[in-house]
Structures are given as structure tokens and as C-alpha cells.
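Hi R.,

Here's the chain you asked about this morning:
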Amino acid sequence: MAELRTPRRPARGSGGSTRAERGGAGARPDAYHQRRRRRPRRNRRLTGIAVALLLGGLAAVIAAREDRLSDAVREITLPLRHEDVIRQQAADKDLDPALIAAVIYEESRFRDATSRAGAKGLMQIVPGTARFIASRSGGTAFELRDLGTPQVNIAYGSWYLRHLLDRYDDDEELAIAAYNAGQRHVDRWVENAGGTDEFDAEEHIGFPETRHYVAGVIEHRDDYAEHYEQELGL
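And here is the predicted structure, written out as C-alpha cells:
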């Protein structure tokens, strides 16, 4: 009679091992190896996200710094002050606020100054012209020191611009030239040109300084309109 024996578990690695233990066909890898294989892909994905966020943050920082730099450069090369007064005077006197700003820029670069000829303030008004404006504009009694006040200076300069535009039928070149050189000289240049229809600023303005002044005001009027549209209420 055959002896009954308890079957023994095949030794690990022997021909009797299970498929999972043998690693044979159809065997499923354990969870540890699955995680090991997934980790590099996940790490690469997380690294990509981190790099994208970093680059996006750097781009935002650079853009903000460029905006601040642009504003700082504009503040130096094309300053603007007292825009509320400019807007008010432009509305009161039917003027382009960018034109007022451009005249101030050409006259004083928005600095309160007194020239060797005695012209004062932001719009560089000489005392004689200021007295003429005061007598015609119906304001309060004029005192010379008032020209150092931005509100008064811009109000007087704007009144004079409107006066010159009315005198020269809204011809901006003639009005700007008269603001710089005086009406008497402009009247003579217009007469020498054969009338306003024949007048050419580059050809008929007799003073190089005034030619440059007229060109500068017109150029900077366009610059102020472009770069300070909101501030000037355009």
C-alpha cells in the first residue's frame, strides 16, 4: 500500500512556481514596479507645468517692469503736469488740450521758469502780454507774481492761444508762430508771402527759431494726443 505524503510547495524559482512568481507570459507586474514606471512620466509632466508657470511668471514680471520703464521714460521725454487745468482751459476756450500741452512743453518743459526776456511760468508769458490778456479777459486785477501760479499761467496762455487762432482764422501754424515771434512779425511774413493762402511756414517764417518752434509744437501735439489720450480727456 502506497505511503500517503503531504504535497510540498514547489521551491521558489523551480518549474512548479506560479506565473506571477515566474514572471512568465500573462504575469501582472506588482504595484511597486507599476509606480516606478509611472513616476518618470508624472515627474516630467509636473516639471513641465512648473517650468510653464515659472516662465509665465517671469514674462509677467518683465512686462510689468517694461511698463514701468516705459512710463518712466515717457515722464522724462514727454512730461505732463496739471492735466486737470489743461482739460478745463481747453473746454472753456474750445482748444485742443494736446495743443496746450505741446505749447507748454516747447516753452518750459513743464517747469516754472523765468526767461532772460522776462517771460514767466509754464507758458512763458511776458508781462506786457499778460497785462493785455488781463485787460481783455475780464479777470481779476492782475499781479505779475500771479504768472507763477500754474492755474493762472495756463489760463492766460490758453486765452492768448484762442485769441491768436481767432485772429488767423484757426490757422494753427500762424497762431503758433505768433505765440513765439509776435503778431507783428507774422503779419509781415504773411504779407511777404502774398496772403495766408500762399503762406508756407518752412519757407516764409523769417526766424529759424520760430520755424523750429512751430514744427516742435505740431509734432508734440500729436505725441501728447497719442500718449496721454486719457489724461487729456481726448
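One quick note: Residues 31-77 form the longest helix (47 residues).

Cheers,
M.
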